[in-house]
């Protein structure tokens, strides 16, 4: 299971080889319902399951897949279980960004030597399909990176799970791979976590956005993007900046009760049909006013897509030196205004839509105001 992006340059300086994103795991209050939400609204297929029927007495997990993206939706039964304590504090959210490596033990010990904190000692899990090895390290807040070695496993996900299919007919919506995963951290913490990814995982700083780039009349944020050696993994890290009112990052930190994953960006080759499918299924997106489109082609130049279709679906456009990109953001995926998805189509551009930040943050502020949190 790998996660491809438009960059694919192997460098000799990659001191922590990662093949791609292995899975993204959500801790939720009700995994049965959440798994149906991601199947029916987002077009993920159920592929594996563990729960009491399979001998898992405390934890239940549904494994969903679309394209190269794998989500694990997990809950637990006892209020004393750490999963439900996590849900109690943070609400439904992303606990694990799992990285696919060739040697989990080696990666884990290398990470610890370089200053990471252990979240799970290496284990070997075995069944009739072979074995996987996994370990984990901590990152911002209570989020962790699992390190997954699966070259000796040919089962559907990992030992402990049984293959299980969606009971309804699911229509895939063109999700291809995880483009990037964004973390929100507290004021003054961004550089610490950038350094963590540089020192521990050998990531390189790709882009810096300061509060001049990302500010509106009311709120501001700063962001740095780090990327691994082969460019398959990109982690922007945001921190709030001083603004007149509460920034969207502060709202997240208040409601998530600390740092955590803010959004997962999902790549598609045909954003119009992906977004139309999502809208048909009831997925809600951030709204930008019609005026955004008035002089858009003067700002971004020619595009292949039908501008009317982009406008109708409220899809944003931005261009950099290498090409252009199309993007749109969902509203939060749960009642707390925390984690959401970005849908992105890259036509050459490798950046993150800086030209859309202002329109986007004004849109987020309108939502914040409706929630009474601006
Ligand atoms: Fe993004």
Written description of the protein model:
This protein is of the alpha+beta class. The protein folds into two domains: 15-163, 2,3-Dihydroxybiphenyl 1,2-Dioxygenase, domain 1; 173-371, 2,3-Dihydroxybiphenyl 1,2-Dioxygenase, domain 1 (Roll), CATH 3.10.180. 23% of the residues lie in helices and 33% in strands. A hairpin with a 2-residue loop joins strand 15 (316-320) and strand 16 (323-329). 49% of the residues are buried. The chain binds fe (ii) ion (FE2).
Features:
9 helices; eight-stranded mixed β-sheet; 2 domains; 2,3-Dihydroxybiphenyl 1,2-Dioxygenase, domain 1; nine-stranded mixed β-sheet; 17 strands; 374 residues; alpha+beta
Q: What proportion of the residues form beta strands (DSSP E)?
A: 25-35%
Low-pLDDT runs: 1-10
CATH-derived architecture of the largest domain: Roll
Shape verdict:
globular
How far from one another are the termini? 40 Å
Q: What is the CATH topology assignment of the largest domain? A: 2,3-Dihydroxybiphenyl 1,2-Dioxygenase, domain 1
Number of helical regions:
9
What's the CATH superfamily of the largest domain, by name? Answer: 2,3-Dihydroxybiphenyl 1,2-Dioxygenase, domain 1
> Over the alpha carbons, how many angstroms does the gyration radius reach?
20 Å
Tally of separate domains: 2
What is the tally of beta strands? 17
Main pleated-sheet profile:
9 strands, mixed
Q: Oligomeric state of the chains?
A: single chain
SSE sequence, one letter per element: EHEEEHEHEEEEEHEEEHEHHHEEEH
As a percent range, the share of helical residues equals 10-25%
Provide the CATH top-level class of the largest domain: Alpha Beta
Strand order of the largest sheet: 6-7-8-5-1-4-3-2-9
Q: Indicate the structural class.
A: alpha+beta
Overall pLDDT level: 92
Bound small molecules, by name, code or SMILES, are:
fe (ii) ion
């Amino acid at each position: 299971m790998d996660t491809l992006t438009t960059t694919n340059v192997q460098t000799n300086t990659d001191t922590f080889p990662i093949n791609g994103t292995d899975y993204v795991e959500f801790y939720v209050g009700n995994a049965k319902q959440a798994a149906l939400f991601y199947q029916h609204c987002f077009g993920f297929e159920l592929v594996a399951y563990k729960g009491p029927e399979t001998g898992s007495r405390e934890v239940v997990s549904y494994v969903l897949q679309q394209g190269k993206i794998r989500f694990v939706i997990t809950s637990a039964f006892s209020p004393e279980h750490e999963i439900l304590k996590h849900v109690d504090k943070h609400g439904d959210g992303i606990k694990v960004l799992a990285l696919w490596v060739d040697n989990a033990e080696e990666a884990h010990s290398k990470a610890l030597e370089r200053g990471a904190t252990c979240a799970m000692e290496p284990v070997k899990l075995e069944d009739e399909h072979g074995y996987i090895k996994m370990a984990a390290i901590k990152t911002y807040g209570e989020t962790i990176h699992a390190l997954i070695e699966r070259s000796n496993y040919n089962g559907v996900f990992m030992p402990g799970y049984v293959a299980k299919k969606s009971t309804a007919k699911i229509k895939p919506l063109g999700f291809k791979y995880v483009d990037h995963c964004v973390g929100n951290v507290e004021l003054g913490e961004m550089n610490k976590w950038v350094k963590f990814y540089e020192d521990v995982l050998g990531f390189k700083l790709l882009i810096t956005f300061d509060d001049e780039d990302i500010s509106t009349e009311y709120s501001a944020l700063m962001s740095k993007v780090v990327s691994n050696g082969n460019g398959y993994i990109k982690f922007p890290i945001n921190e709030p900046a001083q603004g007149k009112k509460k920034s969207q990052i502060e709202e997240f930190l208040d409601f998530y009760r600390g740092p955590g994953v803010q959004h997962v960006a999902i790549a598609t080759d045909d954003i119009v049909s992906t977004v139309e499918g999502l809208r048909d299924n009831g997925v809600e997106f951030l709204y930008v006013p019609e005026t955004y489109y008035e002089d858009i082609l003067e700002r971004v130049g020619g595009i292949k897509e039908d501008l009317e279709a982009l406008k109708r679906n409220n899809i944003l456009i931005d261009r950099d030196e290498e090409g252009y990109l199309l993007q749109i953001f969902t509203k939060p995926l749960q009642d707390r205004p925390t984690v959401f998805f970005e849908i992105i189509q890259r036509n050459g551009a490798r950046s993150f839509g800086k030209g859309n930040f202002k329109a986007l943050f004004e849109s987020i502020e309108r939502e914040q105001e409706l929630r009474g949190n601006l």
